[in-house]
Design goal:
Layout: H1 2-20, H2 22-37, H3 44-51, E1 60-64, H4 73-77, E2 81-85, H5 89-99, E3 105-108, E4 111-112, E5 117-125, E6 128-133, E7 142-150, H6 152-159, E8 168-171, H7 177-182, E9 193-198, H8 200-203, H9 210-219, E10 223-229, E11 241-246, E12 257-263, H10 266-275
Parallel strand pairs: 1-2, 1-8, 2-3, 4-7, 8-9
Antiparallel strand pairs: 5-6, 5-7, 9-12, 10-11, 10-12
């Protein structure tokens, strides 16, 4: 198993070097190191994976903002059907190399929001390949390429998903998470578990707050758990996790950020509480 993983890494290195050159390989290596350094808290998608017994029970995952596929990887390898979106052409090239041969993984090159749009601008930053998006929230962001934007409602129609069950909806779109959720076809289905990102510093300029996002999901029938992280100081340094909090609550620091678990089923929500029992859990926010 270790040898297979080593060979896979060598293939990835050769792929980036052959197609994009040494500079791209160096950038990818730096990003990999940064991503590894940033694991200073709970693996939130890992918690969802275990919560749904995903290794044994197959399901369907939608990953909006897939980057290089670290979030979808365990689900894809466990045989789940995965629909993922990655509009950054550089990120998508690596994503396609890693998961393009999986018959159960569909990679879409579009961004996702609450309204479709053609020739939208995607902004990229040299600070990190993980903060490409539809808005320039860092001074380092630069307009990089023109992309197409769709909605999950339109995507459902294209794929003829109908009233099919979505087990996991993961959203990480650098500020546009609420827009993605508003474009979801709620009249067709309700995902069993939602994991999306919040950060008021990014989203207030876009017209919404952490509470707007949370209340929207509550109105859809979800019980919510917040995973709060300390404010980002720089994207080339480790991010520090702070605590779990059941919603309603307040974020300790207005510059803080984190991920929001939305769970429909009460029994599943109680299982989530049990899963995170080993971490600090604040009841008073």
């Amino acid at each position: 198993m270790a040898l297979r993983a080593f060979i896979s890494k060598l293939k990835t290195v050769w792929f980036i070097l052959r197609h994009d050159g040494f500079r791209a390989l160096l950038a990818a290596m730096l990003d990999t190191i940064r991503n590894a350094q940033q694991i200073c808290g709970p693996d939130e998608l890992g918690i969802v994976f275990d919560l749904l017994d995903a290794q044994r029970l197959k399901g369907l995952m939608i990953d909006v903002g897939a980057h290089w596929g670290s979030a979808l990887a365990p689900f894809a390898k466990a045989g789940w059907k995965v629909y993922c979106f990655e509009p950054d052409s550089g990120n998508r090239k690596r994503l396609a190399y890693l998961f393009g041969k999986f018959s159960n993984v569909v990679i879409d090159q579009r961004a996702v929001s609450d309204h479709p749009k053609e020739n939208a601008v995607l902004y990229k930053s040299e600070e990190s390949s993980g903060i490409s998006g539809l808005s320039a929230f860092r001074d380092s962001h630069r307009p990089a390429e023109k992309i197409e934007v769709t909605t999950l409602g339109h995507f459902f129609e294209e794929q003829d998903l109908g009233d099919g069950q979505v087990d996991v909806l993961k959203v990480d779109t650098e500020g546009f998470d609420f827009h993605v959720l508003k474009g979801f076809p709620w009249e067709k289905c309700r995902p069993r578990v939602i994991l999306c990102e919040f950060e008021d510093q990014r989203t207030i300029p876009l017209g919404y707050t952490f509470h707007d996002l949370a209340l929207f999901l509550q109105e859809k029938g979800y019980r919510l758990m917040i995973s709060e992280w300390w404010p980002v100081t720089a994207y080339n340094t480790p991010h520090q996790w702070r605590r779990f909090m059941p919603y309603p609550c307040e974020i300790n620091d207005p510059k803080g950020w984190g991920n929001l678990f939305g769970v429909r089923d009460e029994g599943l929500y109680q299982s989530l509480i049990a899963k995170i029992a080993g971490f600090q859990l604040s009841e008073d926010g």
